[in-house]
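Exercise: predict the fold of this chain.
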Amino acid sequence: MQQLVIEFSEPSAASGGFDRLLELASAGEIAIADLEFVHSIAGVASTVAADRVDPRLAALDGAASGLISRHDLDAVAAELPHGHTAAVLVYRGGALDAAVQAWTDGGSTVRTLPTR
């Protein structure tokens, strides 16, 4: 399984990458094992449903499976600037090049999980 963190301040700027992610999953090119959206509250992760981040992300609400540890979510939250959201993605399968390109084109930062 592979992991990515997508950090953004404006959900509308990140929506293109999530559209590509859904296309790849629908085509069977990848399988989403877990997708958690987090905000930071004093450095502690607060998970939030995808549709609460942006109603256009409602199709991703069922992707949160709880596979990502609380420790990993807190590590991501600790690095989030005020007002930013992070999507922590665990997936199997092919490359996410099209989604990563759309995220970065929209102004998102794509990185790996912080090391322990």
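Check your answer against the key: The radius of gyration is 13 Å.
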